[in-house]
Amino acid sequence: MMGGRILVTGGAGFIGSHLVDSLMGLGLEVIVFDNLSGGRLENLSRWLNHPRFRFIRGDLLDQSEALRILDGCGSVYHLAAHPEVRVGSAEPSAHFRDNIQATFNLLEAIRLSGWRGRLIFTSSSTVYGEAETPTPEDYPDPRPISVYGASKLACEALINAYARSYGFEAMIFRLANIIGPRSRHGVIVDFIRKLRENPEELEILGDGSQRKSYLHIGDCVEALLMGLGEVATHGVEVYNVGSIDQIDVLRLAGVVAEELGLKEVRFRITGGVDGGRGWIGDVKNMLLDTSRLRSKGWSPRYNSEQAVRITVREIMKQGPP
Q: 148 an active-site residue?
């Protein structure tokens, strides 16, 4: 593994806090930097008084903050971002500010400080747009259809240029739909909330034909941990992270209803927008080719439907969203 303490930006969020749990479990020294706009301090409560853990409340939009957090860190997991894909259709500036500008500020801090560690970035399957499936990392024509996807692709381009220009390593993980406890948005959380309000009918955005890959957070974190040990032979490495199958939204809705013990739920399909999408920028068919990462020894424990079932149980156990 890379030496030195580990910095996790956005470490109080859904994915970030699960990653921190694993890093701490490995005996590493961890610093979390988060503005708590989307994350929750309670996600890190078990570590707040631990001698190997430090929490810093701050914002990467402040350049001076970005500079001061790198000192002594051997690796940086950069997860800080605006997590909601749908926001971009109404407020593109949120993704420009929280994704692109924040990443640029971190990269500038790396340049100005002469930092030479490893940057590990969580990107998204949405960078591909409506690509052929299963989509490999070297897909020749990525065309994101959401502002969120475009912002992640812009971040990737900046990271690639800075890493090659200023001599640090970078690993980019393009994530499918990651699900599990502590999540506060996404289709499963939406469905649970709607069914608690009305257990007889469930509104489903889109035309019902959307098919996507869902990966449990435990499998996702195991992939991200490979960023510490895997050699970035080309300076910048890119890996897809997702399950090996898909589930359509109607089946997903059925699984959620089953796990909630509801047997007579009516599904009301809205028809969606722009050819049956759930929202503007919704990719209707997503499945990543994960053979590159699986060749390194990683493989998901759960398929998409299993991940959905487990997630519903975990969310309900921790308390309804």
A: yes
